[in-house]
């Protein structure tokens, strides 16, 4: 009997060795795919950054009467912002890829604590590394620039030069978000349509040729692209607050001027303390605790930020300080409590928008369940309900944003609005933690399916991923709300810079939207997000068509791939190559449109045209981004809700005709929520920060009238 036991033991060891080899093989395939794509993408970004650095140096120097110091510092800031954004995205991808397979292995062990903690800590490493690195580089750069401008009266030039940092971060984020989004959704849509809808094989089945590309996409789109995007938001909101509040330093000194950076630094400490709630104080022991643990992170960090920022405001801001009004010739006298209230309004507003987003995208609540019920009558009614849900979900977030803008402006003029934007992003480390957690769990489930592990492992990773989907939607709500406020703050900074450059001859009483040029370009600005969304959606569609054809070709030429235990493996590399080429080719036109539109508008039509363009783009982008993101999230979770149902239920469960209708909705929703929707955040921010960087240049052409003298 001892010999028989030894035989069983040897068999188990052999099975374990085979599983381990398979896990390593899948991990390396995902790693190599993500690495090669990011290297190719960042090579293109590097060429763009090199060219645009020269453009910034020349145009800013020319616009400031050939002050090459200001031109050089602006160009250097742009270079540093772009480099930091690239590093942020790359580090995020590395951490996610390393953690995916570790989460799969942890899910094989009993209990929930270990697998949850592995995925959560992967997100935490990315979140804290990105926030800490961004603050460190920005602050060191400002210290170096202070050596050039030691006099507090000249710090206005320092803050103007530092805005290039935000432009660099957002420019790379644009290509990262669009390129990564096209990559991941082309693979996802292709894998879903041919695999699940046509041939009825499960998601992430190793027989599907597009499954490795799909998992690579999670890392390059949902992690690397999203990391660069949120870094850009942090950099831009900080730069806007520094420009508007540069005169704070004249009265309160250096510490008072860098108060926006201090708020972000306080946020890192608060997020660090709150992270122990999920991993040590109240660890996850049951499935139902997963979503609760993630949601509690957002709630606890927001609550703790309120007293923490109050202490920072009392410690670093003077008892009273004066800022020039954005509208009108007067001055505003502010106090630390008003700065604290502005940050707090932003933080609480962000949480409300996040929770409203959860209501509209989680299958725990009625809206998503209504979408699932609509699948009973086919894909068409599913689509109608999903689009209607997206439009309806805009109402409350926009009202909250309006209240935050009114409240923060009443407290501290545009400086208050910029602080509210920083308040939205004050728990950025936690938002990033939760955002990265989702793709890590998604990949862990894909790896479990491809390695043909026990169904209990896949059930566990699916539960982790479902919670991650909902909380990722909350994170998207935060990101969209913060992008709207950041854009408005950057617009305020642009108006401030033009007033300063023109000695108060332009925009003294604000922007007159009834001026023909301003109103005309307001309409043009409102069109830009729709043109951008159309370009990115069509790009995903074209790439997905190529992917569908390739997957079907492999099935047609090798029917044995569809056997339950096929002898051969699909050609995964062919699908990875399609996604890579398509995303690199298709990311350039929409990025070029967003970058060149404000540049040419300012050069040819002047500052009034820019003002209208930015307002139109902001108002249009925020509504479209919320509706697209929430429609996509609702379709995704309606599909997951149906998949949870048993076969004999009203909804039919996985594999039923109702489920196939839900898969079609989810497929359409993929580019909504992961390509076009999130990238619209960058559209409104990037146009505004580019206008701010070139403000002096635009004014220098016919006193702000542009080449066509339209002032």
TrEMBL record:
EC assignment: 7.1.3.1
Keyword Transmembrane helix appears in the UniProt entry: yes
Membrane topology: Multi-pass membrane protein
Membrane-spanning segments: 44-63, 75-97, 118-145, 257-278, 298-317, 337-361, 382-409, 478-498, 518-537, 593-619
Keyword terms, alphabetized: Ion transport, Magnesium, Membrane, Translocase, Transmembrane, Transmembrane helix, Transport
GO molecular function: diphosphate hydrolysis-driven proton transmembrane transporter activity; inorganic diphosphate phosphatase activity
GO cellular component: endomembrane system; membrane
InterPro entries referenced in this protein's UniProt entry, alphabetically: PPase-energised_H-pump
Cellular compartments annotated: Endomembrane system
Domain of life of the organism encoding this protein: Eukaryota
Location, primary (coarse class): membrane
HAMAP family: PPase_energized_pump (MF_01129)
Designated name of the protein: H(+)-exporting diphosphatase
């Amino acid at each position: 009997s001892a010999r028989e036991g030894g035989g069983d033991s040897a068999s188990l060891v052999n099975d374990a060795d085979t599983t381990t080899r398979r896990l390593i093989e899948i991990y390396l395939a995902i790693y190599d795919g993500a690495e090669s794509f990011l290297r190719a993408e960042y090579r293109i970004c590097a060429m763009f950054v090199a060219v645009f650095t020269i453009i910034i140096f020349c145009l800013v120097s020319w616009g400031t009467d050939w002050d090459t110091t200001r031109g050089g510092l602006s160009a250097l800031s742009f270079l540093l912002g772009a480099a930091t954004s690239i590093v942020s995205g790359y580090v995020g991808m590395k951490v996610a890829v390393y953690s995916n397979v570790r989460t799969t292995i942890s899910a094989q062990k009993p209990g929930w604590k270990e697998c949850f903690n592995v995925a959560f800590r992967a997100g935490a490493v990315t979140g804290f590394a990105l926030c800490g690195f961004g603050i460190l580089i920005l602050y060191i750069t400002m210290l170096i620039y202070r050596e050039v401008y030691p006099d507090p009266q000249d710090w206005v030039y320092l803050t103007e030069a530092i805005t290039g940092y935000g432009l660099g971060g957002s420019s790379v984020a644009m290509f990262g978000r669009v390129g990564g989004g096209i990559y991941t959704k082309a693979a996802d849509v292709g894998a879903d349509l041919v695999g699940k809808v046509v041939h009825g094989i499960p998601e992430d089945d190793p027989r599907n040729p597009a499954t490795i590309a799909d998992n690579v996409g999670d890392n390059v789109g949902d992690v690397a692209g999203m990391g660069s995007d949120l870094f850009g938001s942090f950099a831009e909101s900080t730069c806007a607050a520094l420009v508007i509040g540069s005169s704070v330093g004249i009265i309160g000194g250096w510490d008072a001027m860098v108060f926006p950076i201090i708020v972000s630094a306080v946020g890192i400490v608060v997020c660090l303390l709150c992270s122990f709630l999920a991993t040590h104080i109240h660890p996850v022991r049951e499935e139902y605790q997963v979503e609760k643990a993630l949601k509690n992170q957002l709630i606890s960090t927001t609550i703790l930020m309120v007293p923490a920022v109050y202490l920072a405001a009392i410690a670093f801001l003077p008892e009273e300080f004066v800022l020039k009004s954005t509208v009108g010739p007067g001055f505003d006298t502010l106090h630390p409590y008003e700065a604290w209230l502005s940050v707090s309004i932003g933080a609480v507003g962000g949480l409300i928008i996040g929770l409203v987003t959860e209501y509209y995208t989680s299958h725990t609540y009625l809206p998503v369940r209504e979408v699932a019920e609509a699948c009973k009558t086919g894909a068409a009614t599913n689509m109608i309900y999903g689009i209607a849900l997206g439009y309806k979900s805009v109402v409350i977030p926009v009202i909250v944003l309006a209240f935050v803008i009114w409240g923060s402006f009443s407290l501290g003029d545009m400086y208050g609005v910029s602080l509210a934007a920083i308040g939205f992003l004050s728990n950025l480390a936690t938002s990033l933690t939760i955002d990265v957690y989702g793709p890590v769990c998604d990949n862990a489930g894909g790896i479990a399916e491809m390695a043909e592990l026990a169904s209990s492992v896949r059930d566990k990773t699916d539960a982790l991923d479902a919670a991650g989907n909902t909380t990722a939607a909350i994170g998207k709500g935060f990101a969209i709300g913060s992008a709207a406020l950041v854009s408005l703050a950057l617009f305020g900074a642009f108006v401030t810079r033009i007033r300063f450059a023109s000695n108060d001859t332009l925009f003294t009483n604000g922007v007159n939207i009834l001026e023909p040029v301003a109103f005309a370009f307001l309409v043009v600005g409102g069109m830009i997000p729709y043109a951008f969304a159309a370009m990115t959606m069509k790009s995903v569609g074209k790439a997905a068509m190529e992917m569908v054809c390739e997957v079907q070709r492999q099935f047609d030429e090798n029917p044995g791939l569809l056997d339950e235990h096929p002898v051969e493996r699909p050609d995964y590399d062919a699908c990875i190559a399609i996604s890579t080429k398509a995303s690199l080719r298709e990311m350039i036109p929409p990025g070029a449109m967003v970058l060149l539109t404000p540049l040419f508008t300012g050069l040819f039509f002047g500052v009034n045209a820019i003002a209208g363009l930015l307002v139109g783009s902001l108002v249009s982008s925020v509504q479209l981004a919320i509706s697209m993101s929430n429609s996509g999230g609702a379709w995704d979770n309606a599909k997951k809700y149906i998949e949870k149902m048993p076969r004999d239920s009203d909804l039919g469960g996985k594999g039923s005709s109702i489920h196939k209708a839900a898969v079609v909705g989810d497929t359409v929703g993929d580019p909504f929520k992961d390509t076009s929707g999130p990238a619209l955040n960058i559209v409104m921010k990037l146009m505004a920060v580019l206008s701010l960087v070139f403000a002096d240049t635009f004014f220098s052409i016919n006193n702000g009238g542009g080449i066509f003298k339209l002032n």
